[in-house]
Each structure stands twice: as structure tokens, then as C-alpha cells.
Amino acid sequence: MTVWKTSMRNFFAHKGRMALSAVAVLLSVAFVCGTLVFTDTMNTTFDKLFAATSADVTVSPRNAQGADEMPQNGRPVSLPAAAVEQAGKADGVKTAEGAVTSMSVTVVDSHNKNMGSSTGAPTIAGNWTRNDLRSMEITSGHAPRGPTEVMVDADTADKHHLKIGDELRTIAVTGDIRATISGIASFKVTNPGAAVVYLDTATAQAKLLGRPGVFTHISVTAEPGVSDTQLKKNVAAALGDSAAYKLQTQQEAADANKDSMGSFLDVMKYAMLGFAGIAFLVGIFLIVNTFSMLVAQRTREIGLMRAIGSSRKQVNRSVLVEALFLGSVGSVLGVGAGIGVAVGLMKLMTSMGMNLSTEDLTIAWTTPVLGLALGVIVTVVAAYVPARRAGKISPMAALRDAGTPADGRAGRVRALIGLVLTAAGGAALYTAAQADEASTGSLFLGAGVVFTLIGFIVIGPLLAGFVVRVLSTVVLRMFGPVGRMAERNALRNPRRTGATGAALMIGLALVACLSVVGSSMVASATEELDRSVGADFIVQPSGNPPQPIVPQAAKALEAVPGIEHITNYKSVGAELTAPDGAVEDEGVVAADPTYQDDLRRETVSGKLADAYGKDAMSVGDAYATRHKIEVGDRITVAFKDGGTAKLKVAAITSDDTNVDKGAMYTNITTAEKYVPADKMPKNMIMFAKAQDGKQKEAYAALKDALAAYPQYTVQNQADFKQDLKDQIGQLLNIVYGLLALAIIVAVLGVVNTLALSVVERTREIGLMRAIGLSRRQLRRMIRLESVVIALFGALLGLGLGMGWGTAAQKLLALEGLGVLEIPWPTILTVFVGSAFVGLFAALVPAFRAGRMNVLNAIATE
Questions:
Q1: What sign has the CA pseudo-torsion 273, 274, 279, 283?
Q2: DSSP readout, 635-650?
Q3: Stretch among 202-206, 370-374, 731-735 having the lowest mean pLDDT
Q4: Exposed/middle/buried for 745, CB within 10 Å: 0-12, 13-18, 19+?
Q5: For the chain, how are helix, strand and coil distributed in percent, rounded to 5?
Q6: Per mean pLDDT, which of 282-296, 397-411, 492-506, 843-857 is the most reliable?
Q7: Is the Cα dihedral 230, 67, 254, 213 positive or negative?
Q8: 377: closest CA among 777, 29, 704?
Q9: Among 628, 623, 627, 625, CA closest to 665
Q10: Contact, 621 vs 633, CB < 8 A?
Q11: Closest by alpha carbon to 125, among 67, 171, 89?
Q12: TM segments (predicted)?
């Protein structure tokens, strides 16, 4: 009880100094809990949606695409209408209804504006069935009654201001469907953002599937008292041909749909938790510094406690109890803030088009437990070293105010360990950069990152003495005596400066590493495009998931004047049997012969033009080496949904490329001999070459030709490069945004270190004021101290990050990204920005120091 009282008295005596440490714990716990609540809520939303839309038993073709797959020919796999009648005759069946569903569509309004989601959610077209009443209800108008009517979901109608009587155009591979809105249906559960349109059954069959009398699946409803499992068995018996159909109960269908979303949600969840972990790591330095300084400031008090009988264990326990209380308070507040973070993320996603209702807010019992456990454990572990150091103070040394015991030997051991770890990490990074295989290099890269990071943290105090002096020569000496005092203050306790700088170092190292990798990727891709791509224009889908290029759009492109040629490019699924008997599911690229001009590929042997001859193909050199293939050999190609061909290897292409690496080419006419027209994949990308001197006119004409098809973009090479740069830039901005949490915690560490340092130097500050140091000079001294500490952390972080990024780029060079580019503008901006971070962090401590009463400060012991 005495230990508890002592700890609480000390805690509340320094509550202002503990506040920033508590905020660091709060932010880290809030990010963890917010991530868990947000992803759990998304899971709940999708679970409810999938459960509501699934029939008691769903019958679909055995080879039907998954929920996250797109049919390459633009037509979902179908089953005959006769199967509906067969299923309806099974025992225990109340109703069996054929349904049509396709995601290979784009819906536009009368102004050719895409009605689809901007967040990656699909656009779904189908027929209106009784099964849809499970999840939808018609709230206005009526269901479509003919080919000129369409019904749309209420969320899409609200988002795009649609009303009954407006015209919509549904673009499918079989043609465009023009219809007016006859009704609006609302979701009974939360719609995460999909755009849904309903057609009458006959139109859906003809336009979405390409022929009448077929469906994509059958929705079967059970009679009262019949379980889904028994119904599934009865329907399977009625259908007979088990090899042709896939049957799923409501739970099985919902689980299958959930699995298709699971990988995306897991990646997002663990990525965000990873950034929360980085924030926790940075927070450890803040907490260690806080308790180290508080212990040092309570040296005499600890000596008195020891003198009157307190044991080392009691002193140690007293500090740990303070940490326990700090962690508990910060964690409890963090759990509550985490729920607010989750709600904020939901609102943000809703504003971007993904609807997430707070009614589905899911807070699992494990979330607050995990948040509390993490916050408390991290805080107590971080406080252990200062607590142990406090317990080692002898009573006589403490009463003399000698401070914590200095151990020069421990410092030398620490420096030696840090140097060894740094050297080991550097060797691992060098090995990764020299690796011949990506898998081996990745292991060394990971080891190098870990060892160099730990090594820099351990060796931080040693580096602080050298780096701070160099920075001071450049930055502080111009400020005269005030600058020299700031330098001495920063060097007074190298261990403290090293720990404070290390907190900032971690976040900035990751920023620098990712900047180097991102810039190198853009530079490598740009160089590859300049070297390999001969096409003037590239046409490809812009949405997500990407829609195949419909024939009517392809014809519009082919009719554009001023074009020398248009190249079709199709990825055809195929199983390849090499001459050595090895079977691989590689697939081939079926393209027009003009593609060899659009993409300049180097050949190891043979001529690429010959690969576009009759029953011929090319292979990549890695495949050729693996199976000892030479020009003239024949490969057995079993086309998916088609026949089998024996194609002659006419060329072997080099895989030293980043575009179409490993691709095997054949002529489209060759593929069309073996794949039926209705099974032939549609173009997922097309290329165009303008006639000499007509590039500008052709560019404008191509854009005009696709104005009616907003799901596709026309890009020249400059557009393509800029788009690639923008995509990588957007990804990096998201990462930088997540790393901002760690940097904020690091800034709090600088603030706390300075605030406690000011308290520690109260008498010294009073004496300096007494001999003539002005308030303005005092504040400047503290600001300069903060700046040099921030620049110290930035210099270490940026140097370390560039080393990581360089090693990572050398590893990526194995995949064709061979250009190393250091983004100096970004690096310099971050470095200069760190100085402003230091100025910001010093505002409050400098203000408080300037307000000190000189006499009271001198009288402080």
C-alpha cells in the first residue's frame, strides 16, 4: 500500500510531464483499436449483405467464376433453363427461380457519365427475382416489364440524382441496352457501394449472356421445416449431373463470398496494424526518456527512501506502478478514441462512395482487451530499464545528489554491440543487393533492415556526440553564444539525445526508404517504356474491377481516321505441355502481328515476326531454359474452353524486361482456330499507332471515339508515365499518412524531453537569467536545441532509409526495375521539414522557460 501511495503521489506530482507519454500511448492504442473496429465492422457489413442475398440453396455451373473474378469474354458462365425445372421438382423445394447476374457491364447516364462506384465496388446487372426481395424492396415505381425499362438501386439513384423516367445505357459485350428508369429499389441491409441495375429476364439473358433460355444460377427456396443441407441433397439428386453443377447452402454461399473479400480486408487490417506497431515502437523511446529523466530528477528523494528502509525492489516497484497507471489511463482513453477513429474512417469511406453504416458498428470483446493489454505491457516494459536503474542508486550517492550510477564500461559495451549489429545489418543489406534470386535476397533485406535499425538505436548516444557537433557547426554556430549553449545542452546527455532522435529516425527512415523505392520504380518503368514501347497510344480500362473492351468500343477505335494500325491484345487461358512432358498453366498472349512494333521485344533466338505465322508461337527464355526448348520445337497448347494445338516455337524472347515479362505470343488468328468465338476473351488492352505527323489529331479522335465509353481511357506515352507516377504517388501518400502517427508520437517525445530538460535545468536557467541572458535568448536556445535534436534524428533516419531503399531497388532489379533514383527533392524537403518540427516541438517548453521567475529558479534545489 505504501508503494502504491508513493507511486500515485509521484505520478500526480508530475502529471503534466506524464501527459505527453499518456497521449503517445493513447494514440497508439486508438490506432490499433480503430483498425480492429473498422475492419470488424466491414466484415459485419459484408456478412449481412451476403447472408441476405444468398438463397437457401444456390445452383451454379461448376466452372462459374468466383465473386472476385471477371469473365475474360465478358459473358458469365451459364446453365440451361431446363435445370431450373429439374431443381423445382426436388423434394422440399418451395420455389426454384432462374437468375441472371453479370459484373461485366458499365452503366452510364444520358451524358455518358459512369454510374459505377469510384471505390472499386462492382457494377452489377441482372434480372429482378423473388430472391432479391430478401435484400431489396421496391420503394418507387415498379420492376422492369420489357427491354425499354430498367430499375436501379436507391443508393446509386441518390448519388447521381437519378429519378424515374431518366435514361440509362447499360454497356455489355453483346451491345448497348438503352432503357428508362421504371423503378427504384432500396437495400434492406447496408450496401457497401455496389451499383445495381435490374432488367427484365429476357433482356438480361439476351444482352448479358448472349442467348435466351440460360441463367447464371438458380435460387432455390425450401419448404417450411426443410433444412438447407437436406434441400441441397434433394436438389443434387434431382439434377443428377453432379459434375456440371455446384450447389451451395446459404451459409456456404455467404462464406464463399466472404472469402473473396477476406484477402483484401486482411491486407488492409494487417498493414494498418503494422503502422500502429511502428507508433508503439516510437512511443517506447518517449516513455523510456520520460521515466529516465523523472528518476534522475528524483535522485535525492529516492536516496531518502532508501535511507529510511526502502529496498531496491520497492523503489523499482514504485516506478513500475507509475508506469502501470500511466499505461492503464492511456489505454482506456485510447480504446474510447479508437472507436471514434473507426467511426471517422467509416464516414470517410462513405464520403468516397463506400457506404458503411454505424448501425453495423462492431466492437468485439477482444478489441478493448487487446488495446488495454498492448498499452499497459508496452508502457511497463519501456519503464523497466529506468525503474531498474532507480533501484540501483545507493542511498549515500543519492543523498549527495550524485544521480544514477555512471557505468563507463556499460557504455563501451553498448557501443560495441551497436557497432556489431550495424555492421551485421550493413553486410546483410549488401548481400541482398548482390543476390541472384529475389527470395534469398528478401531474407537478407529483412535481416539487414532489422539489424541496422537496432544497431542505430543502440549506437545512438555514440553517434549523437559526433553528428550533433557537425550539425551545430553548420546550423548553430551562426547564433553565437546562444547557439553554443544549445549545442552543449544537446550533448549534455548523449543517451537522452540519442533516444529522442531515434524516435524520429524510425518514421523518417521508412519515409526515405519508400521514397527511394517509389522513385526508382517510376524511373525504371519510364526507361522501359521509352526503350520498349513503340505504340503512340494505349487504350485500357480505367475502372476497378477492369471491364474487358467491348466489341462496339473496339470498332469505334478501328474507325478513327489518321491511325496507321490498331492492335488487339488478348490473354488466352491455356495449359502448355513442353517437349519434356512438363505441364504448366501458363496461358498465351494472342495479338495482332503489329504488336511486335508496339512492343519491341529482344529475342534470344529466332524472329518474333515468325511467331505470328501459322500455328506458331514464341516463349520466354526462362521457360525455354527450364524445359530445354529450342526454336523449331513444338509445344502442345490446350486452350481453355477450346481445342488443343501443337504450336511451333518460332522465337525465344528475352525476359530481361519489365513489360510482358515471360509472355508467350501467338497470332489472334491462330487462337481463333481453336477457341470458339463466344469463348474468345475480349481485349483487356489495345494499342494504336498514328500516321506520321498526325499524332495530335489521332489522339483527339481516339478520345472522341471513346466518349460514349467512359470506362476506358486513351493515353499517349506521356499520359501513361504520368498515370504510373500518380498511382505510385497516391500509394506513397497513403503510407506517409499512416507513418504520420509515428512521427507525431516522435514529436511528442521531443516536446517531453525538452519540457523535462527545462525542469531539470531550472536553477541553471535562473543563474543564466541573473547574469544577463534575456528571455528571448533563452527561448532561442531551447528552440535551437530542439532543432538540432530533430535534425540529428532526421539525418540518421534519412541516411538509414536511403540505404534500405537502395538495397531494395537492387533486389527489384531482378524483376526488371533496374534504375536507382534518389528523390533528392523529397529527401531535402523532409530534412528541412524536420527543422520546423523541432521549432514546433520547442514552442511550449521555450515559453514555459521564458516565464520562470529568476529568484525562484535560483532557489530551486
A1: positive
A2: EEEEETTS-EEEEEEE
A3: 731-735
A4: buried
A5: 60, 15, 25
A6: 492-506
A7: negative
A8: 29
A9: 623
A10: no
A11: 171
A12: 270-296, 319-343, 363-385, 415-433, 445-476, 497-517, 734-759, 784-804, 824-847
What DSSP state is assigned to residue 206? I
Instruction: Give the whole-angstrom CA distance, residue 347 versus residue 349.
Output: 5
Do residues 248 and 256 make contact, with C-beta atoms less than 8 angstroms apart? yes
Within 8 A by CB and 6+ apart from 225, the residues are none
**152 and 197 in contact (C-beta within 8 Å)?**
yes
CB atoms within 10 A of CB 733: 10
The three grid cell numbers given for residue 507, joined into one nine-digit string: 518514421
Q: With beta carbons less than 8 A apart as the criterion, state whether 303 and 397 touch.
A: yes
Say if residues 45 and 29 touch (Cβ distance below 8 Å): no
- How far is Cα 618 from Cα 626, in angstroms, rounded to an integer? 15
Per the structure block, which three cell numbers stand in for 194?
455496389
DSSP bridge partners of 109: 168
Is the separation of the CB atoms in 472 and 846 below 8 Å?
Answer: no
d(CA 845, CA 500): 15
Residue 343 has pLDDT above 60, yes or no: yes
CA 289 to each of CA 317, 495, 655, 746, 765: distance values in angstroms, whole numbers, following the listed order: 18, 9, 53, 12, 21
Cell of 105: 457491364
**Hey, is 359 helix, strand or coil?**
helix
644-660 pLDDT, tens digit each = 999 999 999 998 887 88
> What's the Cα-to-Cα distance from 64 to each of 59, 194, 217, 548, 610, rounded to whole Å?
10, 21, 9, 18, 36
Closest Cα partner for 199 from 170, 238, 235?
A: 170
Give residue 250's identity as a one-letter amino acid code.
Q
Which residue's C-alpha cell is 481511357?
713
Taking the model in full, what pTM does it have? 0.81
Whether residue 524 contacts residue 816, with contact meaning beta carbons closer than 8 Å, is answered with yes
Are the C-beta atoms of residues 218 and 99 closer than 8 Å to each other? yes
Pairing between β-strand 665-667 and β-strand 588-591 as defined by DSSP bridges: parallel
Q: How far apart are CA 565 and CA 797, in angstroms?
A: 51
Q: How many residues does the chain have?
A: 861
- Between 676 and 349, the more confident residue is 676
* C-alpha grid cell, residue 799: 541516411
Q: Is 73 helix (H, G, I), strand (E, B) or coil?
A: coil
Segment of 70-79, 299-308, 590-599 carrying the highest mean pLDDT = 590-599
**Three cell numbers at 705?**
471515339
Contacts of 744 (CB under 8 A, 6+ apart): 27
Amino acid present at 522: V
The whole-angstrom separation of Cα 168 and Cα 825 is 48
Q: How far apart are CA 340 and CA 789, in angstroms?
A: 33
Asked if residue 156 lies in contact with residue 142, where contact means CB atoms within 8 angstroms, the answer is no
How many helices and strands in the chain, by DSSP H and E? 28, 26
The single residue listed with the C-alpha cell 416489364 is 145
Nearest to 18 by CA among 316, 360, 303, 329: 329
